[in-house]
């Protein structure tokens, strides 16, 4: 009798309880908040998506400047042509086990850092391969028709060419300006636009930091904060710099929902150029406060080697990912190179 019961129970287990591998393949289809259709087994560490994922390297992004394809007009004006492609169906693992539907310019969040010199003619070919209308709205000076607000570009291959003169000197954001704007920004449609002065800034180890937040549960509050999208990235992968080397950080605050963000540097102070529009710094400080799209240029150098934190002094933000480390080391030979302004 006991053996018969054992056989019956054993059979029931085999028939009614799928194996682990069965459970892995039992994916279901869901529609996310943003409208993307994804498949998942429901296991948070076992995502099975039908959409492509995003590979993003914050260390590569940090010092990656896109100068465009360069040509010259007969009057000597430098022309820089860029192609920017928007998509809105990609999934990115923004933190271990947390997968988020990112909307991207050229496949990443933030999009590429677009860089030009004051007075250059910019031709930015925008292709919208997303499913929704998108645009590129640049902060700066340009004609109304190039503002990326009243000229929505349709999805599935819609195109528009933004053409304007680079200016003013400084660091500016660009972002999609289609309503609901908050949704289009928080999903990742933004990037940095740097306009260099004609007389150039002194050589430096230059980097870009976009301060951003991620609302991964769609409750209009950020769950994660970061410098360059991945929470805690530069804490676990410190940014290596040299003593006495001039460091120049182009910082842009793209955090939505929270009215302010800030940037604190340890063991040092920095010269700060709000919006980067002036070549004379306005402040010498270790703390700046930034509202939405507020930005500027920080310059500093370290005399002593070692590890130094930089982070939001709004501690909630730093504890949710907006924290990093500069690893400063002595170097016999200066590693500062002449800045390549894309003219070689
Ligand atoms: Cu958009």
Describe the structure.
This protein has helices at residues 2-16, 20-25, 58-62, 181-186, 233-236, 315-319, and strands spanning 28-31, 37-40, 65-66, 69-72, 78-95, 98-105, 113-117, 121-128, 137-138, 158-165, 170-175, 190-196, 205-214, 224-227, 239-242, 247-253, 261-265, 270-274, 283-285, 287-290, 295-300, 306-311, 323-329. The protein has 344 residues and is mostly beta strands. The protein has one domain: Immunoglobulin-like (Sandwich). The strands form 5 sheets. It has a 6-stranded mixed sheet, with no helix packed on it. The protein has a 5-stranded mixed sheet with strand order 3-7-12-11-9, with no helix packed on it. Strands 4, 5, 6, 8 and 10 form a 5-stranded mixed sheet that branches. Strand 18 (270-274) and strand 19 form a beta hairpin. It is globular, with a radius of gyration of 24 Å. The protein starts with a helix and ends in a 15-residue tail after the last strand. Mean pLDDT is 87; it is low at 4-24 and 44-50. Copper (II) ion binds at residues 134, 176, 178, 184, 189.
In CATH terms, what is the architecture? Sandwich
User: Please, how many domains?
Assistant: 1
CATH topology: Immunoglobulin-like
User: What's the CATH H-level superfamily name?
Assistant: Cupredoxins -  blue copper proteins
**Radius of gyration of CA atoms, rounded to a whole number:** 24 Å
Specify the number of helices: 6
The main pleated sheet reads as:
6 strands, mixed
Q: Percent helix among the residues?
A: 10-25%
